[in-house]
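Dear Dr. H.,

I hope your travels went smoothly. While you were away I took the liberty of generating a structure for the chain from your last submission, since the lab meeting agenda had it listed for discussion. I wanted you to have the full record in hand beforehand rather than looking at slides cold. The sequence, exactly as received, is reproduced here:
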Amino acid sequence: MPMSTQQTGDVRTELEHELTTLRRRSTTVAIARVISYVAYAWVVVSLIILAFGFVLLLLGANPDAGFSQWVYRHLTDTMEPFRGIFPQQAISDGSTLDVSILFAMFVYSLIALGVRSVIDWLTFRRDELQQRMRRDEDLRRRVDLEEQRRQQRLAGDPSRPPPGPRRDPLR
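The corresponding predicted structure, in token form, is as follows:
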């Protein structure tokens, strides 16, 4: 059943409002995904530094070597919240077992899992919003096409009254 001009305009306005809202939400989700990926990258880099630091301490690496200095310097920053939780245990000359590093790796891994879950949820939400936007854009195109066809029919049939407010035949 064809829609009147008023109905078409109302539907078009409603669809435009819905599309604007969906675009705004989609932008918010995209920004949140970028922030989440940055946080995830930071956690992964921290885990890599912790792993290198644990292995270098365990194997008694030379602390004067450039790479060891770099790892130990960043390990100090990464380990700041976990220092002193467990005592370091000397295994042999220069070799140290630092259980605090293992605990930090566990905590950072849990944080990575949490951030990854947020990323997955945001990706699902983005896909859902894009699907709704495509559906609404298709519907808007169909409404516009129907309005064009209605205008063409009215233009091609001069006996039809011009579009305007409908009168109630009972009045």
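Two observations you may find useful: DSSP finds three helices and two strands in the chain. The radius of gyration is 32 Å.

With kind regards,
E. W.
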